Amino acid sequence: MTTKTSDTETGKPKHFLPLILDVAVPIGAYYLLKAGFGMSTFAALAWSSVVPALRTGWAAVTERAVNGIAGLILVVNVVSLMLGFVSGDPRLMLAKDSGVSSTVGIGILMSVVLGRPMMTAALKPFLVKDAAREAAWGRLMEGTAAASADFRRKERVFSIVWGGVLLAECVVRIVGAFTVPVDTMVWLGSVVLVGAVGVGIVVGGALGAGPMERMLTAEAAAGAGPAGPAGGAGGECEVAEPAMAA
Description:
The chain is an all-alpha fold. The protein contains ten helices and no strands. α1 runs antiparallel to α2 (41-48).
Protein backbone atom coordinates (compact mmCIF):
# COMPACT_ATOMS: atom_id res chain seq x y z
CA MET A 1 0.00 0.00 0.00
CA THR A 2 2.84 2.37 0.93
CA THR A 3 4.64 1.63 -2.33
CA LYS A 4 1.57 2.47 -4.45
CA THR A 5 1.06 5.76 -2.65
CA SER A 6 4.66 6.83 -3.13
CA ASP A 7 4.52 5.92 -6.83
CA THR A 8 1.40 7.99 -7.31
CA GLU A 9 2.84 10.96 -5.49
CA THR A 10 6.09 10.86 -7.44
CA GLY A 11 4.09 10.62 -10.65
CA LYS A 12 2.21 13.88 -10.13
CA PRO A 13 5.22 16.17 -10.63
CA LYS A 14 5.89 14.30 -13.87
CA HIS A 15 2.41 15.24 -15.09
CA PHE A 16 2.97 18.89 -14.21
CA LEU A 17 6.56 19.11 -15.52
CA PRO A 18 5.67 19.54 -19.23
CA LEU A 19 3.22 22.35 -18.41
CA ILE A 20 5.78 24.06 -16.18
CA LEU A 21 8.51 23.88 -18.81
CA ASP A 22 6.35 24.64 -21.84
CA VAL A 23 4.02 27.33 -20.46
CA ALA A 24 4.93 28.65 -17.00
CA VAL A 25 8.68 29.08 -17.60
CA PRO A 26 8.53 31.05 -20.89
CA ILE A 27 5.59 33.23 -19.83
CA GLY A 28 7.05 33.81 -16.37
CA ALA A 29 10.46 34.55 -17.89
CA TYR A 30 8.93 37.16 -20.21
CA TYR A 31 7.29 39.12 -17.40
CA LEU A 32 10.29 38.72 -15.09
CA LEU A 33 12.76 39.96 -17.70
CA LYS A 34 10.49 42.82 -18.79
CA ALA A 35 9.18 44.04 -15.43
CA GLY A 36 11.89 42.78 -13.07
CA PHE A 37 15.03 43.44 -15.10
CA GLY A 38 13.76 46.30 -17.25
CA MET A 39 14.41 44.62 -20.58
CA SER A 40 12.64 45.80 -23.69
CA THR A 41 9.66 43.86 -24.97
CA PHE A 42 11.74 42.58 -27.86
CA ALA A 43 14.60 41.36 -25.66
CA ALA A 44 12.25 39.77 -23.11
CA LEU A 45 10.39 37.90 -25.84
CA ALA A 46 13.65 36.75 -27.43
CA TRP A 47 15.13 35.38 -24.21
CA SER A 48 11.86 33.81 -23.06
CA SER A 49 11.77 31.89 -26.36
CA VAL A 50 14.90 29.93 -25.48
CA VAL A 51 13.20 27.23 -23.38
CA PRO A 52 10.32 26.44 -25.80
CA ALA A 53 12.81 26.47 -28.69
CA LEU A 54 15.04 23.95 -26.92
CA ARG A 55 12.04 21.81 -25.91
CA THR A 56 10.68 21.79 -29.46
CA GLY A 57 14.09 20.94 -30.92
CA TRP A 58 14.71 18.21 -28.34
CA ALA A 59 11.33 16.58 -29.04
CA ALA A 60 11.97 16.72 -32.79
CA VAL A 61 15.35 15.01 -32.44
CA THR A 62 14.66 12.45 -29.72
CA GLU A 63 10.96 11.69 -30.21
CA ARG A 64 10.68 12.54 -33.93
CA ALA A 65 7.60 14.58 -33.06
CA VAL A 66 6.64 18.21 -32.46
CA ASN A 67 6.12 19.27 -28.84
CA GLY A 68 2.64 20.80 -29.20
CA ILE A 69 2.52 23.28 -26.33
CA ALA A 70 6.20 24.28 -26.50
CA GLY A 71 5.92 24.74 -30.27
CA LEU A 72 2.80 26.84 -29.84
CA ILE A 73 4.45 29.16 -27.32
CA LEU A 74 7.49 29.43 -29.59
CA VAL A 75 5.31 30.42 -32.58
CA VAL A 76 3.53 33.06 -30.46
CA ASN A 77 6.85 34.56 -29.40
CA VAL A 78 8.24 34.56 -32.93
CA VAL A 79 5.10 36.24 -34.31
CA SER A 80 5.26 38.80 -31.51
CA LEU A 81 8.91 39.53 -32.32
CA MET A 82 8.04 40.03 -35.97
CA LEU A 83 5.16 42.36 -35.10
CA GLY A 84 7.56 44.33 -32.93
CA PHE A 85 9.31 45.50 -36.11
CA VAL A 86 6.06 46.68 -37.69
CA SER A 87 5.18 49.64 -35.49
CA GLY A 88 5.98 51.30 -32.23
CA ASP A 89 2.34 52.26 -31.71
CA PRO A 90 1.53 51.48 -28.03
CA ARG A 91 -2.02 50.47 -28.96
CA LEU A 92 -0.71 47.97 -31.48
CA MET A 93 1.65 46.62 -28.84
CA LEU A 94 -1.29 46.17 -26.45
CA ALA A 95 -3.26 44.41 -29.16
CA LYS A 96 -0.25 42.21 -29.87
CA ASP A 97 -0.27 40.94 -26.29
CA SER A 98 -3.66 39.38 -26.93
CA GLY A 99 -2.06 37.33 -29.69
CA VAL A 100 -0.84 34.90 -27.04
CA SER A 101 -4.39 34.09 -25.97
CA SER A 102 -5.71 33.84 -29.53
CA THR A 103 -2.89 31.58 -30.72
CA VAL A 104 -3.13 29.29 -27.71
CA GLY A 105 -6.93 29.26 -28.02
CA ILE A 106 -6.75 28.32 -31.71
CA GLY A 107 -4.14 25.69 -30.92
CA ILE A 108 -6.38 24.14 -28.26
CA LEU A 109 -9.36 24.04 -30.64
CA MET A 110 -7.21 22.52 -33.39
CA SER A 111 -6.00 19.85 -30.98
CA VAL A 112 -9.64 18.86 -30.42
CA VAL A 113 -10.21 18.60 -34.16
CA LEU A 114 -7.11 16.39 -34.43
CA GLY A 115 -8.39 14.15 -31.64
CA ARG A 116 -5.72 15.08 -29.09
CA PRO A 117 -7.29 17.68 -26.77
CA MET A 118 -4.44 19.79 -25.46
CA MET A 119 -6.01 20.65 -22.09
CA THR A 120 -6.09 17.00 -21.02
CA ALA A 121 -2.48 17.24 -19.85
CA ALA A 122 -3.43 20.06 -17.48
CA LEU A 123 -6.60 18.33 -16.25
CA LYS A 124 -5.37 14.80 -15.58
CA PRO A 125 -3.23 15.55 -12.47
CA PHE A 126 -6.30 17.04 -10.73
CA LEU A 127 -8.48 14.01 -11.45
CA VAL A 128 -6.03 11.12 -11.06
CA LYS A 129 -5.10 10.88 -7.40
CA ASP A 130 -4.21 7.22 -6.84
CA ALA A 131 -3.43 3.98 -8.63
CA ALA A 132 -7.09 2.93 -8.87
CA ARG A 133 -8.05 6.18 -10.61
CA GLU A 134 -5.02 5.91 -12.87
CA ALA A 135 -6.21 2.50 -14.01
CA ALA A 136 -9.76 3.81 -14.41
CA TRP A 137 -8.47 6.72 -16.48
CA GLY A 138 -6.67 4.27 -18.77
CA ARG A 139 -9.80 2.18 -19.30
CA LEU A 140 -11.94 5.23 -20.01
CA MET A 141 -9.45 6.68 -22.47
CA GLU A 142 -8.81 3.37 -24.24
CA GLY A 143 -12.52 2.69 -24.77
CA THR A 144 -12.75 -0.45 -22.66
CA ALA A 145 -15.08 1.08 -20.05
CA ALA A 146 -18.85 1.49 -20.47
CA ALA A 147 -18.62 5.28 -20.04
CA SER A 148 -15.64 5.72 -22.38
CA ALA A 149 -17.53 7.52 -25.16
CA ASP A 150 -19.12 10.02 -22.78
CA PHE A 151 -15.80 10.49 -20.95
CA ARG A 152 -13.94 11.30 -24.17
CA ARG A 153 -16.77 13.65 -25.19
CA LYS A 154 -16.45 15.59 -21.93
CA GLU A 155 -12.69 15.64 -22.42
CA ARG A 156 -13.21 17.40 -25.76
CA VAL A 157 -15.76 19.78 -24.23
CA PHE A 158 -13.24 20.82 -21.56
CA SER A 159 -10.69 21.84 -24.20
CA ILE A 160 -13.35 23.50 -26.36
CA VAL A 161 -14.42 25.66 -23.41
CA TRP A 162 -10.86 26.81 -22.74
CA GLY A 163 -10.15 27.43 -26.40
CA GLY A 164 -13.33 29.49 -26.74
CA VAL A 165 -12.67 31.45 -23.56
CA LEU A 166 -9.15 32.37 -24.68
CA LEU A 167 -10.39 33.50 -28.08
CA ALA A 168 -13.10 35.61 -26.46
CA GLU A 169 -10.52 37.13 -24.12
CA CYS A 170 -8.40 37.99 -27.14
CA VAL A 171 -11.30 39.81 -28.83
CA VAL A 172 -12.10 41.81 -25.68
CA ARG A 173 -8.47 42.87 -25.25
CA ILE A 174 -8.10 43.87 -28.90
CA VAL A 175 -11.25 46.01 -28.72
CA GLY A 176 -9.99 47.53 -25.48
CA ALA A 177 -6.56 48.22 -26.95
CA PHE A 178 -8.07 50.55 -29.56
CA THR A 179 -10.94 52.06 -27.57
CA VAL A 180 -9.76 52.35 -23.94
CA PRO A 181 -7.03 54.82 -22.85
CA VAL A 182 -3.61 53.14 -23.03
CA ASP A 183 -2.78 53.74 -19.36
CA THR A 184 -6.06 52.11 -18.35
CA MET A 185 -5.71 49.18 -20.70
CA VAL A 186 -2.25 48.33 -19.36
CA TRP A 187 -3.76 47.12 -16.08
CA LEU A 188 -7.24 46.33 -17.41
CA GLY A 189 -5.76 43.75 -19.78
CA SER A 190 -4.54 41.74 -16.80
CA VAL A 191 -7.98 41.97 -15.18
CA VAL A 192 -9.60 40.65 -18.37
CA LEU A 193 -7.11 37.78 -18.49
CA VAL A 194 -7.77 36.81 -14.86
CA GLY A 195 -11.51 37.03 -15.47
CA ALA A 196 -11.20 34.79 -18.52
CA VAL A 197 -9.26 32.22 -16.53
CA GLY A 198 -11.98 32.30 -13.88
CA VAL A 199 -14.68 31.72 -16.50
CA GLY A 200 -12.65 28.87 -17.95
CA ILE A 201 -12.33 27.21 -14.55
CA VAL A 202 -16.05 27.54 -13.70
CA VAL A 203 -17.54 26.65 -17.10
CA GLY A 204 -14.90 24.06 -17.91
CA GLY A 205 -15.47 22.45 -14.54
CA ALA A 206 -19.23 22.37 -14.93
CA LEU A 207 -19.30 21.03 -18.47
CA GLY A 208 -16.14 18.97 -18.62
CA ALA A 209 -14.03 18.35 -15.52
CA GLY A 210 -16.96 17.79 -13.15
CA PRO A 211 -18.67 15.07 -15.19
CA MET A 212 -15.28 13.48 -15.92
CA GLU A 213 -14.55 13.40 -12.19
CA ARG A 214 -17.81 11.59 -11.48
CA MET A 215 -17.30 9.06 -14.28
CA LEU A 216 -13.73 8.45 -13.16
CA THR A 217 -14.85 7.85 -9.57
CA ALA A 218 -17.56 5.43 -10.71
CA GLU A 219 -15.15 3.55 -12.97
CA ALA A 220 -12.53 3.32 -10.23
CA ALA A 221 -15.15 1.87 -7.86
CA ALA A 222 -16.32 -0.58 -10.52
CA GLY A 223 -12.76 -1.65 -11.24
CA ALA A 224 -12.11 -2.22 -7.55
CA GLY A 225 -15.27 -4.36 -7.29
CA PRO A 226 -13.76 -7.65 -8.48
CA ALA A 227 -10.73 -7.15 -6.25
CA GLY A 228 -12.92 -6.89 -3.18
CA PRO A 229 -14.80 -10.14 -3.77
CA ALA A 230 -11.57 -11.80 -4.84
CA GLY A 231 -10.06 -10.96 -1.52
CA GLY A 232 -13.21 -12.17 0.20
CA ALA A 233 -13.24 -15.28 -1.95
CA GLY A 234 -9.84 -16.17 -0.61
CA GLY A 235 -11.29 -16.25 2.89
CA GLU A 236 -14.28 -18.29 1.73
CA CYS A 237 -12.01 -20.79 0.01
CA GLU A 238 -10.18 -21.39 3.24
CA VAL A 239 -13.50 -22.35 4.82
CA ALA A 240 -14.72 -24.28 1.79
CA GLU A 241 -11.55 -26.33 1.31
CA PRO A 242 -12.09 -28.53 4.39
CA ALA A 243 -15.65 -29.20 3.19
CA MET A 244 -14.33 -30.24 -0.21
CA ALA A 245 -11.67 -32.36 1.38
CA ALA A 246 -14.29 -33.96 3.58
